Amino acid sequence: MNAHPMNRCITIALSGNPNSGKTTIFNNITGTRQKVGNWPGVTVEKKEGLIHRFGFDLKIIDLPGTYSLTPFSIEEIVARDYVLEARPDVVIDIIDASNLERSLYLATQLRELGRSKVMFALNMSDVARARGFKIDGAKLSELLDVPVVSTIGNKNEGVERLLEKAVELALSDKPPEFRRKVRYSQDIETAIASLDRLLQACMSPALDYDTRWTAIKLLENDPIVRKRLLEQAEEHAEQIATETDQLRQVLSQRFNDEPEIVMTDERYGFIAGIMKEVFTISSRQRVDISRNIDLVLTNRFTGFPIFLFFIWAMFQLTFTLGAYPMEWIEAGVTLLSTGVERLLPPSLLREMLVDGILAGVGSVIVFLPNILILFFCIALFEDTGYMARSAFLMDKIMHLIGLHGKSFIPMLMGFGCNVPAIMAARTLESEKDRILTILITPFMSCSARLPVYIVLAGAFFDAHAGTLIFVIYLLGIATAILMGRLFRSTLLRGADAPFVMELPPYRVPMLKSLMIHMWERSKMFLKKMTGVILVGSVLVWALSAFPRTVTYSRNYAEAMEQVRVEYAQRLAADDDARAALTAERDARLQELRWSRQSEAAERSLMGRLGKLVAPVFAPLGIDWRGGVALLTGFAAKEIVVSTMAVLYAVEDGESGDALGRALVSSGMTPLAALSMMVFVLLYVPCLATIATIRRETASLKWTAFSVFYMTGVAWLLAFVVFQGGRLLGFQ
Ligand code: GDP
Ligand code: MG
Questions:
Q1: Which atom of ligand 1 has the smallest separation from the CA of 17?
Q2: Terminal-to-terminal C-alpha distance of the chain
């Protein structure tokens, strides 16, 4: 803006409804350069600030907050008198955009006053947007002949522009005149016109109020204006008074109501017209659509089956779609292993790289696609607004355990990772509700447990793997609910706090935001790869590779040599059966190789540890290797898979598939696999979860309790599954 040649002072008054943000904007503009006092003669606070901007001295006045300019309260009188008598160059009406209709009442009155130049700040525009209100500022500006600037006072957004516009308006030659005025009904307009004419003829120069406005005020029987006018009008006073009273009487009879009431109504009519032009609620429609969708999705009968279907579909998708990229990653890991083996000479380092790191981390990283898909689905539930519905659906079931549906959101998030899920329980107000939710949330099967299921279900349940995993998840939910019920009636007695379920409108999710959500969470999975899983893998490998004994392996070498010699002779004798004999020989060699490896594992430190824990796991149908794997799983669930990969001596590549085959040939039965899955589902998820429980409950007692009770429940249920299954004749 060019500096005006005259260096004069510009006065800008801020008017607006109470709480529209006047003081906030005033403070933004003036900073510390303000003076606080009282308006003369009254106890209403007067704030004034003087700043130097754009080459001008700007005097900013914070007027008292009012809803209108009728002279009924001190604030209204002070605000109106300031505009009437001091005639600021510009009045900025701070409009609460989230309450536009109410705010426009004062705005129309300010315009009608015809005293100062008026402009609008559409403040609280963030609140308006959040509520789905759309205000066409340009249209509003055009309709009412006032500059309009959108602002967010508490963020100081748009305030600079507002000030700039205000100065621009002050400098413009345009008089404060408005083309589109409030048009009253015919009779009132006639009365206004006749009074207006009279006033124009006889108004004294000392009282230079806008004559139309004065006429309106007289018809409204405004005591202050009437008194002032009659004092100034001298010889015309009587004529004006009688004319006014006459007209008021005519109008009262005509409308059967006081003219001021009729005029107020008509002003609101004018505002309603403006609202129609400039205001739309975008959420109204959304709310209606949402309501219709909710008729089905949260319906008493259809809601629950649909919910189950969505969850089932999520796991199907995770399992089936994830299988493809999984193969590619597997191939990559195998390629890397063979590469390393070819590059490096046989050594402890090579062994650690291939059998430790690549086998361990590789066996887990193949599940990245599954986890990405799972997190994508959870993000989809969240971003569409379905997550809140699931809480609503679960409300009845949650009440069975004395919790409300709100507790289900942390639980559902637990499908992704228990750590943020436990933290999400913070939203619950009652301490007992929170502890209860924290105690049962880890039963929600997190994504880290998924690799274990995929290996076991894939190896033993083949075509039904997806469905079986779904059932495992359901078992987790059921256990959570049962345990919750138990705690509610014993340790954590109390009634559930009343609470209103909020159902936000459904939204079409944005792909970008879905991706961000998915990635934010998957990042943690990748971080674990280079952290706890890497260290765990090396540790597990070291424990299984030491102590190094060679004596027994010589026996195997001899046995294998014998097999080779034997078949060489038989092949020489019977050339016709060559193919069959070769196959037989290779199978026997393979068996010996496996035995050698498993004996090596058994003799290792890991093996000794395994022997120690074996009695604990034997009743669950889990052998010592499985037991050790579960033990290492306390650090992180993914390590269960990598430990098994090491202990079951997966030969070619480290793929989940190969591990599955190794498990089958180790003599594990489907029932034992199921028992292991149940155990993995229910026992302590990982160190990070334990740390989070400790942090969120701020109690060592509850932390220790949760560790022991979860492990106990896991053991008991796995026991029931395995022994019960055997009794029923399953294998
Ligand atoms: P006044 O009564 O008109 O002086 O209003 P205040 O300036 O005291 O503001 C009332 C409240 O609204 C304060 O808590 C401000 O922080 C807040 N506020 C002001 N402007 C905005 C805005 O644009 N958006 C939001 N969300 N809050 C605002
Ligand atoms: Mg204020």
A1: 3
A2: 87
